[in-house]
Amino acid sequence: MGLVKGVGFDSWRRVGSVMPSIKVYNLREVDELILLDITATEENREIDFDSVSEFSQECFVPFTVGGGITKIEQIKKLLRAGADKVAINSAAYDSLELIKKAADLFGSQCIVAGIDFRLKADGNYECFRNRGQIATGRDPVKWAIDLEKNGAGEILLTSIERDGSMKGYDLELIRRVSSAVKIPVIASGGAANYDDMTRAIRESGASAVSAGAIYHFTEQTPLEAKRAMAQAGILVRH
User: Range of 113's domain?
Assistant: First the structure.
């Protein structure tokens, strides 16, 4: 299974294989890892459960896995394979019942709801599904509220335009969503440096930040990010 880190959801940059990256991230003291099979929904197939099982054995932090999840049975298989949480995105637009049933069966703490969004020319935000290719007509703030009401335990909020760009998070929408829900919001898409991470939490109310490109294409590390945020007065895991 190859690991990619594209720009704007165009995943043309291969950055190696999954297993070596997991081992490196373990050494660099990340708090959690998120692994998304970005083509599973598009190709109408299931994620590779055997690979998830192998990865989970080397992952010593909470491990979130997503991609192509449409059924409760798939969630069961992922949890049995060693995932601590599952990420659900596109399928929720077809039926919020999947989120509700999953939360009822497994607990909200292991259900991460993904929201991929774009800022439109008219200044409004819109949710997109299927790897950012299909507009849903939904407002991200209202959708986050619906997801929370139906049992989601966390929101993974990703800016499509900023993904992999290292131009900074979309602080405005992070602030709006974080203010609208009580569950943790993970800011994703655009981190260029440790200051971006600090601002997402202190200024916009995110509970956590997700980053990928800066760790693959710069000298910055998760451990140094944690130190920088701690110096800024943010509580981090040690």
Answer: 2-231
Tens of pLDDT, residue by residue over 5-34, are 566 666 555 656 889 888 988 888 899 999
Those residues with Cβ within 8 angstroms of residue 34's Cβ, 6 or more apart along the chain or in another chain = 64, 65, 66, 87, 112, 156, 210
Apex 109 CA angle, 105 and 113, nearest 5:
90
Query: What's the CATH code of the domain at 216?
Result: 3.20.20.70
Q: What's the token pair of residue 96?
A: 């919020």
Strands 14-17 and 63-66: unpaired
Residue 202 token pair: 């202190």
Tens digits of per-residue pLDDT, 60-109? 999 999 999 999 999 999 999 999 999 999 999 999 999 999 999 999 99
CA–CA dist 112, 99 (Å, integer): 9
- Strands (DSSP E) along the chain, which ranges? 2-4, 14-17, 33-36, 63-66, 85-88, 111-119, 125-129, 134-135, 154-159, 185-188, 208-209
238 in any annotated domain: no
Residue 237 lies in a domain: no
Residue 114 domain-assigned (yes or no): yes
Helix, strand, coil percent values for the chain (each to nearest 5): 40, 20, 40
Total number of domains in the chain: 1
In tens, the pLDDT along 155-192 reads 999 999 999 899 999 999 999 999 999 999 999 999 99
